[in-house]
């Protein structure tokens, strides 16, 4: 795949069909391709990872020409788009632009990354894009909107397309102040764990809220967290094989057949 203009791009997200990040991504996609398809969840599906809906039917709503919302997850959207809505597969799938970075271990939960992994599984070159922020009420959408077309053009045709998806994070700085693109590794990220908060409703029944807890510990220079928090653009190739290779070798040595 070359960096010339593409014929067809599919975009999706996990923040929902009306999210500002999807609007920004659509503008990015139109700079790169002649035809843009939008297939996104009808409501926020953050934290859903690669989940697919196998216990209930999906509803698809037309929102305009080549624009649809789906009553399911980001992975559902990718499957419905590729197997039902599109007669010809796209040359590229873009997922995002997520409100907030997807870094380190946290990518395991990300619906934005989950959609890209689903695209990879279904044979389409796929990229997840996220915009880091430090204040929720002032997300720099223009940074990702401005930088993403050039970054994507740099990456296309470099040989990753069939073996991995790419996780791109843009820093919380004006586009003109962003550092260069860096190929990074996942690292640990900022996630500590998951908290569960118990509440009691007016009928004296309990319910629970879950939230992710985060830290600000420094990481190695080549990790995506370190790069994006220092103002750079991080690009991490992600694949399906999560085998702990060094531990595998250790266990092979420790547990030898009799």
Straight-line N-to-C gap: 50 Å
CATH topology assignment: Stationary-phase Survival Protein Sure Homolog, Chain: A
Number of separate domains: 1
Q: Please, what is the average pLDDT?
A: 93
State the CATH class: Alpha Beta
Beta-sheet strand percentage?
25-35%
Tell how many strands the DSSP assignment holds: 11
Q: Main β-sheet: number of strands, strand sense, barrel status?
A: 9 strands, mixed
Structural class category:
alpha/beta
Describe the structure.
The structure is a single chain. With 258 residues, the chain is an alpha/beta fold. It has a single domain (6-188, 219-254), classed as 3-Layer(aba) Sandwich (Stationary-phase Survival Protein Sure Homolog, Chain: A). 26% of the residues lie in helices and 28% in strands. The protein contains six helices and eleven strands. It has a nine-stranded mixed sheet, sandwiched between helices. The chain has a two-stranded antiparallel ribbon with strand order 9-10.
Index terms:
11 strands; nine-stranded mixed beta sheet; 258 residues; two-stranded antiparallel ribbon; alpha/beta
Structure summarized in a few sentences:
The protein is an alpha/beta fold. It has six helices and eleven strands. A hairpin with a 2-residue loop joins strand 3 and strand 4 (67-70).
Topology (elements, then pairings):
Blueprint: E1 6-12, H1 20-32, E2 33-41, E3 60-64, E4 67-70, H2 74-85, E5 92-99, H3 111-121, E6 126-131, H4 141-155, E7 165-170, E8 181-183, E9 191-200, E10 206-214, H5 224-229, E11 233-238, H6 245-254
Parallel strand pairs: 1-2, 1-5, 2-4, 5-6, 6-7, 8-11
Antiparallel strand pairs: 3-4, 7-11, 9-10
């Amino acid at each position: 795949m070359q960096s010339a203009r593409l014929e067809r791009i599919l975009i999706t997200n996990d923040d929902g069909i009306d999210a500002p990040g999807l609007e920004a991504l659509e503008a990015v996609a139109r700079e790169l391709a002649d035809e843009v398809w939008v297939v996104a969840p009808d409501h926020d599906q953050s934290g859903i990872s690669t989940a697919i809906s196998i216990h209930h039917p999906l509803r698809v709503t037309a929102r305009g020409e080549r624009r649809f919302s789906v009553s399911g997850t980001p992975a559902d959207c990718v499957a419905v788009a590729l197997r039902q809505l599109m007669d010809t597969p796209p040359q590229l799938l873009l997922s995002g632009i997520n409100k907030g970075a997807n870094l380190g271990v946290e990518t395991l939960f990300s619906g934005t990354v989950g959609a890209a992994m689903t695209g990879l599984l279904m044979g389409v070159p796929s990229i997840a894009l996220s915009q880091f922020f430090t204040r929720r009420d002032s997300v720099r959408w223009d940074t990702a909107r401005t930088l993403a077309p050039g970054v994507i053009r740099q990456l296309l045709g470099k040989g990753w397309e069939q073996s991995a998806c790419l996780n791109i994070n843009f820093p919380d700085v004006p586009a003109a102040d962003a550092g260069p693109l860096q190929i990074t590794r996942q690292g640990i990220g900022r996630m500590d764990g998951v908290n569960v908060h118990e509440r009691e409703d007016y009928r004296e029944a309990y319910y629970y809220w879950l939230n992710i807890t985060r830290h600000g510990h420094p990481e190695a220079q080549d990790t995506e967290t370190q790069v994006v928090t220092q103002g750079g653009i991080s690009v991490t190739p992600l694949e399906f094989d999560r085998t702990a290779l060094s531990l595998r070798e250790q266990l092979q040595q420790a547990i030898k057949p009799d």
